[in-house]
Request: fold
Amino acid sequence: MTTPFLHINGLRKVYGNVVATDHVELAISKGEFMTFLGPSGSGKSTTLYILAGFQDPTAGDILLQGRSLLSTPSHKRNIGMVFQRYTLFPHLSVGENVAFPLRVRRAGKDEIDRKVKKALKLVRLDGFEDRMPANMSGGQQQRVALARALVYDPPVLLMDEPLSALDKKLREEIQFEIRRIHQETGVTILYVTHDQEEALRLSDRIAIFNKGKIEQVGTGPELYANPATHFVADFIGDSAFLGGELAAIADDRATLRFADGEVLAGVPLHGTGTAGDKAELMLRPERIELAAGPGREGATLPVVVEDVTFLGNNSTVTARTGWGDALTVRLNFGHPMIGSVARGDRLHVQWQPKDAHVFVKP
Amino acid sequence: MSIIRLALPNRGRGGSGLALAMPAVLLLLAFFVIPVAMLLLRSITEPEPGLQNYAALVGSPTYAKVFLNTFFVAGIVTLITVLIAFPVAWALTIMPRPWAAVIFAIIILSMWTNLLARTYAWMVLLQQTGLINRILISIGIIDQPLQLTNNLIGVTIGMVYIMLPFMILPLLGVIRKIDPSILQAAALCGATRWQALTRVLLPLATPGIASGGLMVFVMSLGYFVTPSLLGGTANMMLAELIAQQVQSLVNWGMGGAAAFILLVVTLGLYAVQLRFFEAREGTR
Reply:
C-alpha cells in the first residue's frame, strides 16, 4: 500500500472523562477536498485543532507524507488555516495581513510584493492592499483570510466553518469562490462544517462525524444513495423512518414487519441483526409515489394525509401511517395530484423495495 | 414649513442643554479654573511682578536636580509598571475565571487600602534591618544590608507598587478585547511566540499601554506621600518642592510657578496622547 498524503491514524482525544474523538482514521489524497461533517460536539473541530497543533491527541498520530506532525509546533507546521471568526490582524492593512506569514519567514521584499499580489488576485481582492480589515465586509475579510492562509503555499489548508457568520446568499457566493480556488491551486483542503448542503456542494469526499467517531466516509452521492447508518441517513438529505421489526434475513436483504402486520420483503439491510430485532425502514421523499389505491408493483402502505405545503418547484405532503409514523412525499410541480391532495385524504404510498434501506436498531 | 418645525425644537433643546450644564460649568469655574488662574497670577506677581520665579526654577542647579529626579523617577516607574503589568494583564485574561477574579480582587483591594499605611509598610520592609535585607543576607546574596530607603530606589519600589493597578486596569480593558484565536492564526501563519507578541499582541495592546502609561507618568510627576516618606530630604521631587515652598517658606510665587510648570507638562503629554491615539481610533 502506498503512503497516503495525509494520514489521520487512530486519533483519540480525551478531556477529563469526555471522549472528544475516538479512533478517527482517515487517509486523504493530495489535492483532495475533504469535509468533516457533523453536529456540534461530534469531534470534527477537535480533529482539525489537533491537525493545526492547538491541541495534542491522547493517542494516535497525524502523518503528512509519512512523517508525524505531532512533535512540530503550530508555527513550524506550514499549514494554512481559515477560522470561523474573523481573525485578520486589526492593526494591519489587508496587504500587511497577507504579507504577515512571509514577513515572519523573513522573505525578501520582492518575493513578498509578488506573492501578496498573486494571493489577493486569487481571491479577487487585487487593489485592496491599503484597506483596513474593519472597513471590509465579513465576506471580504474571510477572502483576505484565505489569501493569508494560501500566500506561503501550504500543502494543507484547514477551514473551520469559515462561512458560518455570513448570510446565505454571500455564503453560496464564497462557496463558489472556494471551489474555484481549490481547482486553481490544487491545495489539499480539510473543511469543517455542520451544513450538509455546504458539504455536498464543496467536497470530493465527506467524513460524517458523530459522537467523536467517523460514521462513514464517501462522496456525496455515495453517502446519499447508500448510507451506512441511521445517523448518516438522517444527516444527509431528508428521510422518513418507519418503525418495525425484522421478520427474516437473506444475504443482505431483509424482510420487515410493520406494526400493523404489513410485511415488506427484499429491502437492503445495513448492520447485522436477527429475526425479531427492532428495525427501521428509511425512505427518501423523492423515491415515494403517492397514489389513490394500492399499486401492483413494489411496496405499498395506506396513509392519511396530514399536511400539504406548496414550496414553488415542489409540494411537500406530510402523511402518517396506520401506526403513527410520519413520512413526507415530494410532488414535483406539475404532478397531477397537486391541487387535489388535501388534509385527511386516505391514500397509498408506494416505492421500490431497492430504494429503501433497513437499519437494525441497536 | 417642515424645516422650521424641525429646527425649532432643536434650538430649544440646545438652549436647555446649556442651562443643564451650568451647574457643572460653575463648579469647574469656582473650584478649578479660578484657583489655577490665581496660582498662575501669584507666580508672576510675587514677590514682585515678572518671570523671576520661572527663571529661578529653570536656572538653578538645585531646582534642576529636583526636575531631573521627578522626571527620571516618573519615567522609570512607568517603564517598570508596564513591564510588570503587561504579563499580569495577559495572565488575568487567559487564566481560569475564578482565579482571575481572586487576583483581580487583590489588585483592587490594594488600591483601596490607605496610601500612608501601604507606604509605611514598604518603609518597614525596605529598611536596613527589614525583611527584604534580612532575606537577602540569609540566602547569601549580599553580606551587608542594602540602602533601600531614603533614596530613589525606595521611591521607585514604593511608587511602582502603588501605580501598578492604574496600569493593569486599562491594559486589561484592551487585552480582554483581543480574540485569542488571532494568536492561533498568527501561530499557524508561522509566527514564533516572540513574533506573535511583538507583531500582534503588543501593537494591539498599545492604546492600553499608552493610556495607562500616561496616567502613571502624570500621577508619578505630582506624587507627594511616597517620595517624601521613602526618598528622604536629599532626593527631593517636584511635589515636595511645592509643599516646601508653600508650607515652610510661604513662598506662593515659587510654589505656584513649579505647580504651573507641572500642569503645562501634564497637559502637553495629554495632548500628545489624544493626537496619536484618538486619531488612530478614528481611522478604524
Observations:
- Chain A touches chain B at residues 52-54, 73-81, 83, 85, 87, 89-91, 100-101, 103-105, 132, 134, 145, 148-149, 152 (CB under 8 Å).
- The first strand of chain A starts at residue 6 and ends at 15.
